[in-house]
Amino acid sequence: AWTMPFAFCTREKHPWCEFAESAEHGPSTQFLQELAAKYRMVIISPILERDEHHGDTLWNTAVIIDHTGKVLGKTRKNHIPRVGDFNESTYYLEGNTGHRVFETIYGRIAVNICYG
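^ thats the sequence. predicted structure below, dont judge the formating
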């Protein structure tokens, strides 16, 4: 369901940022909510999040969806690498969600988005 190429962070900011969407209510999350409920599975999905409540800030985010299709929450990437032309800070900020642990029907899940 992830529509973003990873290579965007070495290129110009546009047009890849047009793929950013709400982590809780965006089309990718809504699609995955249906699948999670239909198959009773927990889904952890990467997404380029657009935070409309904080000036359209972009985040590298993972959305956690439970077996009923409910969004349990999200985790944002904590460390943004700045190496050569690989500079993700051109696009998004370091996360502010900390290292959350989510309770699911199948057990506890914690997410760590790549540490560069």
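The radius of gyration is 14 Å.
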